[in-house]
Amino acid sequence: MKCILVLGAGRSSSCLIDYLLKEAKLNDWHIVVGDLSVEAAREKVGEHKNGEGIFFSIDDVALSSTWIAKADCVISLLPAFLHLKVAMLCLELNKHLLTASYISPEMKAMHEEAVKKNLLFLNECGLDPGIDHMSAMLIIDKIHDKKGKLISFESYTGGLIAPETDPENPWRYKFTWNARNVVMAGHGTARFLEAGQFKYVPYQQLFTRTTSIEVPGFGAYEGYANRDSLQYIDTYGLKDIRTMIRGTLRNKGYCDAWNVLVQLGCCDEGYVLENLPAMTHQSFIETYLRSGSGTVEDRLCQQFKLDKEGEEIKRLRWSGFFSDEKIGMMKGTPAQVVEHILSKRWTLSPLDKDMIVMWHRFIYSIGDQLYEVQASLVAKGDDSISTAMAKTVGWPLAIAAKLLMLGKITERGVCMPIMPSLYEPILEELDGLGIRMHEDERRIK
After folding, report:
1. Within a domain: residue 288?
2. Which pTM value belongs to this model?
3. Alpha helices, DSSP H only, in 146-287?
4. CATH number at residue 34
5. What is the pLDDT of residues 389-436, one digit of tens each?
6. Based on the domain organization, do 283 and 364 belong to the same domain?
7. How many structural domains does the chain have?
8. Does one domain contain both 183 and 71?
9. Which label site among 110, 341, 426, 439 has the fewest CB atoms less than 10 Å from its CB?
10. Measuring CA to CA, how many Å separate 376 from each of 129, 131, 132, 214, 413?
């Protein structure tokens, strides 16, 4: 009996596990779900006869080796920094590995050995990164097939909440994936290419350098540049392109309010706060303000020249940053405190629905004629468990694992799903599951 080992039973795992359990019943496979919380792992598996929930810690090498040795394929949904430990054991024990995370330099360095051992280490096969790559390459390959020359590619993706969910929430946002990653988003310098110019945006400027984006049928959003877009110029085979931007999508107003926290220094992960057990939400903000008279709210407005009735302050006030509620942590960094405070208002309620919005724009030429392709994907969750995020992160990985187990994937080494043999069957099945891109093309010159 073939065995698939899923590591992690968190927010993004539910749809992946459900999909694999259904396939396990059809193909006589065994699905093992491992997590630090054995209760969470067992809850995800339920009473399914082809499933098993176990305690798993990647830091326990003996335990990890035992379970990985039993598997034919390992899917890691662990935090990205732990993938390397999983990969090293998979190499040692000759097991395939699938993740939804970006390929790190350390992971990339395993390519040759993985090829020698006939192993697939498939990364960036979730939502962003993942479906964004696959849907982009589908269109890029179609343009290349008709001898088109790509001039510009912009791509933005966001995990938001559906319009009907929590209508009083001014951020239009809740945590639907790793909350720490949301708080730490944008750290470092964003790099992209715009009209032939290399652009670099440091963290302290990132949330002021936004782009307005209109998604057909769903309205206006704003996007900010995401990490290193330049590396995908070669990955996508676009060496002569003049604009290459990949970014994160948010509802209007989010970035202005988030920028206040960034400029205050509240998103720092570099030190632990003193006297945290005694702190309230308000006194936490107080620690970053100049001394003076007036309320914390007033002094924040003075320090950053904000309107007290403006949208930035309304969002921070709604989040409870000016309340006298105790934070309720014994120890933590500023970023951890921000995450903790926001989680009190940004946690999905049972019937809440999240929403994924993805938008691509391509400009290409054929001879002296210029064309634009806009493609968008919008997906809603069913509730707080079967979220759009869980579907779009989990299903591509699950489909890839199924294809691998059935012998339908022949690629080996460290790779991402940018070749037709991978993206075509995955996108085709996603389309049947209701996850599809809608394309609109027009001649602009």
Report:
1. yes
2. 0.93
3. 179-184, 203-206, 231-235, 254-264, 281-286
4. 3.40.50.720
5. 999 999 999 999 999 999 999 999 999 999 999 999 999 999 999 999
6. no
7. 3
8. no
9. 439
10. 16, 11, 10, 10, 31
